[in-house]
Amino acid sequence: MRRVRYESTGGPLFLEEVPVPAAGPGELLVRCEAVGLTLPVVRKVAEAAEPVPLGGEVAGEVLAVGDGVTRFRVGDRVTGLCFGHGYADFVLLHEAMASPVPGGASAVDAVALVRSGLVALGALEAARPEPGESVLVTAAASGVGHLALQLARIRGASRVVGAVSGSGKAEFVRSLGADEVITYDAPQWGEPVDYALDAVGGDLLTPAIAALAPGGRLVAYSSGGGTIRAYDLLVGAKSVIGFQMARIARGKPELYERWRQELWRLYAQGALKPFVHAEFALEDAAKAHTEIESRRNLGKVVVRP
After folding, report:
1. Residues 176, 149: contact at Cβ < 8 Å?
2. Under 8 Å between Cβ of 146 and 275
3. CATH node for 2-101+275-304
4. Per-residue pLDDT tens digits for 137-178
5. Architecture of domain 118-245
6. CA-to-CA distance for 115 and 117, rounded, in angstroms?
């Protein structure tokens, strides 16, 4: 089978031929139909000291199951987060990380919706929004951000502000239901909001905190790091909440499953619409990474083995 790999920090990515892996205890062997790319994985290629497997959100058909698997059988269509080599014709998926793909939904729909949607919904839950509150969503055109923006509206936000890297993304973000769109370099981010969902981090944390109304909450779920000054929180009695999806997946599987079901329900109703920016062939994975690194994507970037 074909698999994408790299040998040193910064790449390049290349295809290699390797044997099809065997499903171990608790694992599913999946014929991969789609891989949803994530910014953390793209960053690891550029920053990790040692090469790491290119994992990600995968979807496809179960070809074999390992010992102890009880929830799935051969022929089922599943999606889930692959921690091993995910950019491949065949992938191994732990049963605990897998969920069924409903009939009528494509593999591309699944990788655009589930993992990014879980992060978006989890970050929103962490903010504990009240109906009628206002919200700021950074990286509002990203794979996670465009879903977070829609979910905030579904949960009753009265005013939704999307923050993006460039004005060329404004029309897309407004089409998702944003009342206002701002760019990161704007001197003022408009009227203060009750809570913010931040997927960027770094230098953007300071203006995001400043955009909060007194008593506002910022949920940080970015892998981009950054520093927050205590004074900026004290003067407005503001707070910062860190959110990590892995903690929910490992420690609260029942909540994880409930969120997955909610995403599919909203998708089936047409209330939540995942958008795919572009699809790339497996051999063009490097181009897919470039698309994310350049921050040009509107919605999800997908690789199709």
Report:
1. yes
2. yes
3. 3.90.180.10
4. 999 999 999 999 999 999 999 999 999 999 999 999 999 999
5. 3-Layer(aba) Sandwich (3.40)
6. 5
